[in-house]
Write a structure and sequence with these properties.
There is one protein chain. Helix 3 crosses helix 5 and helix 12 packs across helix 13. The chain has 14 helices and 19 strands. The model has no long low-confidence stretch (mean pLDDT about 90). It has 2 domains: about 325 residues, TIM Barrel, CATH 3.20.20; about 70 residues, no CATH class. It has an 8-stranded parallel β-barrel, surrounded by 4 helices. The chain has about 450 residues and is of the alpha/beta class. It binds flavin mononucleotide. The site of flavin mononucleotide (FMN) has 18 residues, from strand 6 and helix 6.
Amino acid sequence: MSKQAKRQVFLAAYYAGVNESVLWEDSEPGAQIDFDSLKHVVQTAERGRFDYFFLAEGLALRQRGDRFFEHDIAGRPDTLPILAALSAVTEHIGLVGTLNTTFNEPYELARQLASLDHLSGGRAGWNVVTSFDAYTGANFRRGGYLDRDLRYRRAEEFVHAVKELWDSWPEDAILADKDSGEFLATDAAGEFARSTDQFDISGRFTVPRSPQGRPVIVQAGISGDGRNFAAANADVIFSPFHANPEAQEFFRDVKQRVEGFGRHRDSLKILPGSEFVLGDTEAEAQELARETLDRIYTPTTALVRLEQVWNRDLSNYDPDGPLPDLEPVLDGPNHIQGRTFYIDRQGTIDQLRALSESRGLNLRETAREFFGRIDYVGTPEQVADQIIDFVDGEGADGLVLGPRVTPHGLDEFVDRVVPILQERGALRTEYEGSTLRDNLGLPVPERGEQAPAFFA
Ligand SMILES: Cc1cc2nc3c(=O)[nH]c(=O)nc-3n(C[C@H](O)[C@H](O)[C@H](O)COP(=O)(O)O)c2cc1C
């Protein structure tokens, strides 16, 4: 009998639309935001008993120098209408959208998310981000950005306010009179008042308490503030640490912080973004992974990636030639706008040069080898084994899988890897309950329960 898993694997499916990190199968313009594409992925994930379907948020078309980023042709549609539409074609899977706390208002988001929770029968989740730059902020009335040290302060006050709004209707706040057919709300319905540095709001919330009590809170952001914010307030972290030892280190650090806030360590799940490529043999999978990355790392993609590192226009460089023999711009404004960037420029350039030299790689090949990654490559058995080992070894509680090929890339995983994960006891064969909280094993929070204020 094959080795049984020690821990459950939680799975989410990431829908990337069209951008420079995936291969789109259908070149018909519009296919990437076509409802059928989204429906296919969410229904496939549900067939694989995934916990949730996940959408990122892009509030600006990215820019490369003074031109926009050609790969963003998809446009970046709004999350909430998509999730609402998907709730009608699914029954069990969670629906999680990324929405930022910097350019929104608590009342508005609380209403939208509670409504999604009602519509979906308790499957809504919110990935709370603070968003990254003044470039994106320029699209909003706020114009520009919030100082870095204010972002998480606002995020925390925002989430506390949203939780208060979600809790503002007692369970018995609606009285229905069967004889007259009249619905009446009691005096207590929806009352709230909150006055903090960022918000001074009071009144009545319009949406009755939703099936989950509170939609699930996800967080993405890796700074110390981001980790504390998540440890105090979130149910899930969407993490960028997909490989050990960084993943184990992040896992240990965050779980310790969770306990520091008086919570059980399992009350916050850590799920890193990850990719996979399958083959009938390991050699075939490796070959397919190489081919896939080679197709993704077109000359333009390679140049854009390196422009982000050098922070300057490299469009005159030959992708088949050597790496630029130039210094990076360290202090200027960002050449690539609207995209997260965590790495040290000079250190990365040194590594890129060493890689190119040692393996005799040209510009495009160097970018592909350095940035192109696929975490799980192998036969379905090997991939299932690797995932189980990663989760059993406390690298994470599960994965947010982003197929490199869309929209049908997930099918193969669900058809070939999911049955093995199930057989080894790592993945449910049926959903445990009807809400996302039920499936993630998260209790419904008490009404009025709030995390301690950390930043205030
Ligand atoms: C894995 C990951 C995914 C993210 N996804 C998004 C996103 O879809 N939209 C967005 O505006 N910000 C996204 N962010 C960035 C957040 O805006 C985050 O709040 C920002 O990085 C600042 O937080 P930090 O300083 O704690 O990293 C993401 C961050 C991480 C680490």
